Amino acid sequence: MPRTGTRFTRWVVGVLCVVAVLALLAAGAGLWSVRRAFPQTEGELALPALTGEATVYRDGRGVPHVYAATAEDLFRAQGFVHAQDRFWQMHFNRMTTAGRLAELFGPDQVGTDVYLRTMGWRRVAAQEYDLLEPATRAYLDAYAEGVNAYLGQRGGGELGLEFTVLGVLSPDHEVEPWTAVDSLAWLKAMAWDLRGNMAEEIERAGLVADGLTREQVEELYPAYPEEEHAPIVPGGQVRDGAFTLDPEPEPEADPGDGGDTALPPAGAAPALAEVGADLAAVPPLLGPQSSGLGSNSWVVSGEHTASGLPLLANDPHLGAQMPSVWHQTGLHCTEVTDACPFDVTGFGFAGLPGVVIGHNADIAWGFTNLGPDVADLYLERIEGDAAVVDGEREPLETREEVVRVAGGTDVAFTVRSTRHGPLLSDAASALDLREIGEAPPVDAEGRPAEEAADAPEGGYGVALSWTALEPGTTADAIFAMNAATDLASFREAARSFAVPAQNLVYADTEGTIAYQAPGRIPVRGAGDGRWPAPGWDSDHDWTGYLDFEELPAATNPQSGFIVTANQAAVGADYPHLLTADWDYGYRSERIRTLLADAVERGGLTVADMGEIQLDNENSGARAIVPYLLDAPAEGTAAKGRRLLADWDFQQDTDSAAAAFYNAVWHHLLDLTFDELGSGYPMDGGSRGWLVVSRLLADPDSPWWQGTVADGRDAVLAEAMERAAEELTQTLGDDPSAWRWGDLHTLTAGHPSLGSSGIAPLEWAFNGSTVEAGGGTSVVNATGWDTQEGYEVTAVPSMRMTVDLADFDRSRWIDLTGPSGHAFHPHHQNQTPLWAAGKTIPMPFTRPAVEEAAEDVLTLR
């Protein structure tokens, strides 16, 4: 199943080549096609949906601050501004979450649509709307009115250059009005990209199916090294610096104890492998994924800062895309009241009202992914139209779906579900049993004219249990956080935050710092969620969810700071199972070390926080380099090895040692874990660091036995030799002139058109290439895929540091810029600053906003 926008059918490619050349290279028409989509950002515009007036101030980089007298008008104006800047991104995202990409891009996207329809993201979002608070529904509806007001003023290519391309690709496509459900569906996309360990669950089962023993697989997925890398909260909860454990915890399955049922039956392995491969091709909405994906956040108490009040820093690590996943925004009620409680600045998502990460006049907050295990794959025994559970047949639930296909025949299929969730294996079977584009026809109402090809009547199926497939109230939490005024109201807001479960760091102007983990986290009857569960045994069903009061939290710890970087949230004493698949804590421990040193010096400032965000140390290399220095090497490999002798482990762009080390690391993984093949390669980030560091202490480990090199020192020597050969070919024969930045480059790709294979389109829609320091599982987390090359795939998608003593001293930076329009001055105006590690002012008070403003737009 193809990734979004990576391949087009031949007829599309032919047409687009002609259109691209004519539209983009013809001087007059090309300029007109581009500029007609640029929004008006000064003067006055009619926005009939408003009940009053709204003012939009934009600074010199195009970042908008919106002012309005009512909350509804505030979100109407935000919807209008989002549509001005990013409507293609909004439209593409809603078509993805609805499983309607084939309507835009033709038959190649049917596979993606079938899987997303099978999971039913939009169906669940529609159910959520009725669960939300009346105020939340009003804000979502107001936002939609603002978007639709913009759509009422423009159409076709006036909405964006992408719509000019779409007019050729799918000329009959009509842009529908925006709805509240379109916004809610985006939360499913967030949850999907941050869903936890489902990929690892599939990989472990696949490795066993490929012939590894369970013991070998467990060696590749070691337990979290708690003694070396501290959890966020040592055990249960921390209140005012004192540790307490939850009283009389209910017994649960021990982490790591999956039992014999964890090993999938041989007959189920093919279905599981096929589902895993297809799910990997479902497009990530938060940008391309890679190993080591995570985020950093920390908060420092005022006792350690120059101002005497807290500092909060956050930089979420997401896939690199153009435009950025984030949109910087200020939302300000002209007078803050109970009816209009918003005075907030921060980062949000185009398509979703409110601010997701940021601060208001009283508090600041940041997110990192908690990463609990909230998705389980269940192997089901299917007999005809039923699943077998505890020896009894349970009828399957069914619903019919139709995928509309531009340039092809519409595809009808049946979604079947067990008690555990939708059967993903049915989607794979439906796609395998027909030629895409030659599916059974449908009638005028979209019903199948004849039954679609059935999935196999018997055997094993794969069902998905995932917390995001149950309606939740996360939208309530976003608005409540935006309006919170103290820790109590912030924690009450977090109570509604169902998916994706996050680590929340908090600070306020009274000097309090805190941590809270929210989220809907399942309690399992048996097993630990690390392996596919036997659906035929109800003992493995979920029995409920953890109470909010039982989730880890901390307030004013004695250390004076809190660090979250996707490490274990809790220690081994915590009485509940959150997950057994954490990031292994190298980033968090490095941040803790840097903060401890800074705290000892005292007087921390915003600039100090920014320096920590840019730390490029490869902490995993510290355990590996000594063995490389002792391994044999000759010629250029020996010269490269000498670079490591006095290396400070910083992966700056001009570092020759970093270039050599990362090339060695790339080849070392391939040589050491050649048993894994290309299907389930070893992780190149923190898990790989820990596994290899432990293997190095055991030179006789079977993992060092390979077909090319045999034995630890031989493998290390061969990895250095291959790295030297590779870098000589790409960077020249002088190791001292090698540069990490020449290998480690970032080109933010357009999610739908940026990898089309059509050079003019890629040139128009992708970002410019920049060098990047850092690397996978580094604090400056510019991740790369060891199977693909050294190019950056995941990034600190934004950086923010908030000063609770003076919000106008806060700083921020986005990966790209506010505008999603190709060739607009604000399209990627922050990328060079981001690459250089710089930030820009983050004005908050109205005098500061007005002073920074270069454009003022009045909406009436």
Automatic annotation (TrEMBL):
Where in this protein does the record put region Disordered?
229-267
- What note does UniProt attach to the cofactor annotation? Binds 1 Ca(2+) ion per dimer.
Q: Has the keyword Ion transport been applied to this entry?
A: no
Active site, renumbered: S295
The record's section on InterPro entries has: Ntn_hydrolases_N, Pen/GL7ACA/AHL_acylase, Penicillin_amidase_A-knob, Penicillin_amidase_dom1, Penicillin_amidase_N_B-knob, S45
PANTHER family xrefs:
ACYL-HOMOSERINE LACTONE ACYLASE QUIP (PTHR34218:SF4), PEPTIDASE S45 PENICILLIN AMIDASE (PTHR34218)
Q: Report what the protein is called.
A: Penicillin acylase family protein
